């Protein structure tokens, strides 16, 4: 079977890493988790988005670029499939929301250069939910850097994600997208929800690996 890249996407706190870990254990694919809390600008960003957004986004872009380079060399090129708890395209979603008119064009140029030859997802799993659900789950996990997170920022981010994914499906009809509404599903705490989601995902993974 061929190696594939599976990416899990959605707003902050929606459960991307939990689902990626579940797929790693269930399918035996390599797990890639993004580096988030090692970003020295994250806490400052949540306190002052305008001041720290460019530094934050550049740090994330460079780290994700290096991670994807590594998985391409060490796993995908060796016939080993990978599940990641992010897709590199998320960089543009966040950048368009947070960067100034002066910095955004510069950032997008760098993004295009760095991502030109990176591996692209064969399958995208998209988790979405209302602002109430997202904020409740962020509060439950109670991470210090997220305690000052602005609700308005998160609400806009959810809308940005939904709009981006609609456009992504239109422009990438060859990349299957599986969507889950996490207002109705809590796969972290309800085994029956987790099992149902696996029943939707696993056949698609097997199908892609056999192509």
Q: Can you describe this structure?
A:
This protein has helices at 16-27, 42-47, 49-74, 90-98, 103-115, 131-141, 151-171, 191-210; strands spanning 5-9, 30-32, 82-84, 123-128, 177-181. It has a 5-stranded parallel β-sheet with strand order 2-3-1-4-5, sandwiched between helices. The protein is 56% helix and 10% strand. The protein is built from 8 helices and 5 strands. The protein has 211 residues and is α/β, with parallel strands linked by helices. The chain has a single domain, classed as Rossmann fold (3-Layer(aba) Sandwich), CATH 3.40.50.
Please supply descriptive tags for the structure shown above.
8 helices, Rossmann fold, 211 residues, alpha/beta, 5-stranded parallel β-sheet, single chain, 5 strands
Provide a short characterization of the protein structure.
The protein has helices at 16-27, 42-47, 49-74, 90-98, 103-115, 131-141, 151-171, 191-210; strands spanning 5-9, 30-32, 82-84, 123-128, 177-181.
How many extended strands? 5
Net shape? globular
The largest beta-sheet arranges its strands as 2-3-1-4-5
Order of helix and strand elements from N to C terminus: EHEHHEHHEHHEH
Distance between the termini: 8 Å
- Helix percentage range: 55-70%
Average the pLDDT over all residues and give the rounded result.
92
Oligomer: single chain
Q: Please identify the top-level CATH class.
A: Alpha Beta
Task: Give the count of helical stretches.
Answer: 8
Strand content: 5-15%
What Rg is obtained from the alpha carbons, in whole angstroms?
Answer: 17 Å
**Unreliable parts:** none
Q: Looking at CATH, which topology would you report? A: Rossmann fold
Largest sheet: 5 strands, parallel
Q: Can you say what the CATH homologous superfamily is?
A: P-loop containing nucleotide triphosphate hydrolases
The total domain count is 1
CATH architecture call: 3-Layer(aba) Sandwich
Protein name: Deoxyguanosine kinase
Organism: Brevibacillus parabrevis
GO molecular function: ATP binding; deoxynucleoside kinase activity
InterPro entries: DCK/DGK (IPR002624), Deoxyribonucleoside_kinase (IPR050566), DNK_dom (IPR031314), P-loop_NTPase (IPR027417)
């Amino acid at each position: 079977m061929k190696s594939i890249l599976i990416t899990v996407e959605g707003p902050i706190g929606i459960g991307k890493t939990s689902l990626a870990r579940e797929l790693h254990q269930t399918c035996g694919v390599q797990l890639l988790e993004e580096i988030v809390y090692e970003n020295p600008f994250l806490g400052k960003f949540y306190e002052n988005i305008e001041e720290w957004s460019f530094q934050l986004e550049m740090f994330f872009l460079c780290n994700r670029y290096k991670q994807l380079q590594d998985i391409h060399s060490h796993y995908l090129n060796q016939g080993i499939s990978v599940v990641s708890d992010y897709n590199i395209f998320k960089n543009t979603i966040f950048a368009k929301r947070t960067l100034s008119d002066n910095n955004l064009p510069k950032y997008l140029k760098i993004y295009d250069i760095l991502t030109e030859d990176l591996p692209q997802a064969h399958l995208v799993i998209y988790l979405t939910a209302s602002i109430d659900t997202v904020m409740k789950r962020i509060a439950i996990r109670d991470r210090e850097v997220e305690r000052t997170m602005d609700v308005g920022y998160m609400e806009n981010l959810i809308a940005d994600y939904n709009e981006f994914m609609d456009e992504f499906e239109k422009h990438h009809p060859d990349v299957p997208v599986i969507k889950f509404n996490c207002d109705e599903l809590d796969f972290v705490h309800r085994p029956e929800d987790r099992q149902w989601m696996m029943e939707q995902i696993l056949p698609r993974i097997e199908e892609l690996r056999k192509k």
